[in-house]
Amino acid sequence: MNIGITVYPTYGGSGIVGSELGMELASRGHTVHFIASSLPTRLTKLSERVRFHEVEMMSYPLFEHQPYTLALATKMAKVAETENLDLLHVHYAIPHSISAILARESLQPNRRLPVITTLHGTDITLVGADRSYLPITRYGIVQSDGVTAISNYLKDATAEIFDFDNIAVIPNFICASDYQRHPVEKLRAELSPNGEPLLVHVSNFRPVKRPVDCVEIFARVLKETKARLIMVGDGSERSLAEHRARCLGIDEHCSFVGKQPKIVDYLSASDVLLLPSEQESFGLAALEAMACEVPVIASRVGGVPEVVTDGETGFLSEVGDVEKMSVDTARLLADEELRREMGRRARESAISRYSTDLIIPQYINFYERVLAA
């Protein structure tokens, strides 16, 4: 197939999943055309089967804000014609599904261009639930030729908010060979020069990820045992988390390393992942950690309980319960046998339920059903 994929080219779950889906499809013989404002973060190699088409923005005094939705729709239609696309697969409903529908309609009746929308979470639970965006978000979903969601939780939330449940659940995924624990002695020594165990947090540091809670958890853990906290990523909450660490007098034990291209290296160097989010429609960071044999300390929200089994592959707590999270973290650090056993079960669970060999064929079958409709 000739597939057009649009993602937000940023450090977030939808961009990561969309990029890696495209690369997996290309490895299976399909040709993928990424249509976005810039090269997606995880898209490191272009080839004959993985191509990139940049959305060009027009600057004109009449427009107070550049009309990205229209520019994207125009680019989608152009690429569909010049590259003979079979379908458009957009990740995140707003504005991508609206742009794709505009592109589809602009090409009729000369050709058919099915639109598939994958819902990732905040496009539904936050943006879509805003009353001012609800009608147009619902329109984008309902008018799509096919809709998928990354978790059962998100499908149910979409049905409740938008009264629409014709949605296929196709979860996020990991490549078993790419996501596995491997020796990183040099990095481990840099992050923990005195050999302390490492806690890690990976996110885009938005408020919903509650990175400051990681600092609060860590401060309590330090009262029980030596450790270091590694904060991977960047965003609006980073400065608040750094400030809180200084206020608590633990900043010397924290490393804020910013965005990192090789997340697997940092997971391989770590002992426990902290994911105290206020909301997670799936919990991709948890899945990636589990594949690298890292137990997860997380909030019991959204789709996380579908990924992390409480007491087996990690520990779940209520949002904001930093006391329980710190107790569970300290328990894992104190009991190496428990930590290793949880890590082993975590990888087993991740690979048996979410490997690319299981999930990518589900997308291909979904594409074929939509094309045949």
Structure summarized in a few sentences:
The protein is built from 15 helices and 13 strands.
Structural description of this entry:
This protein has 373 residues and is α/β, with parallel strands linked by helices. The protein folds into 2 domains: 2-173 and 355-372, Glycogen Phosphorylase B (Rossmann fold, 3-Layer(aba) Sandwich); 185-354, Glycogen Phosphorylase B (Rossmann fold, 3-Layer(aba) Sandwich), CATH 3.40.50. It is 45% helix and 16% strand. It has 15 helices and 13 strands. The chain has a 7-stranded parallel sheet with strand order 3-2-1-4-5-6-7, sandwiched between helices. Helix 3 links the parallel strand 4 (87-91) and strand 5. Helix 4 (122-128) runs antiparallel to helix 5 and helix 8 (211-222) runs parallel beside helix 9. The protein is globular. It starts with a strand and ends with a helix. The mean pLDDT is 94.
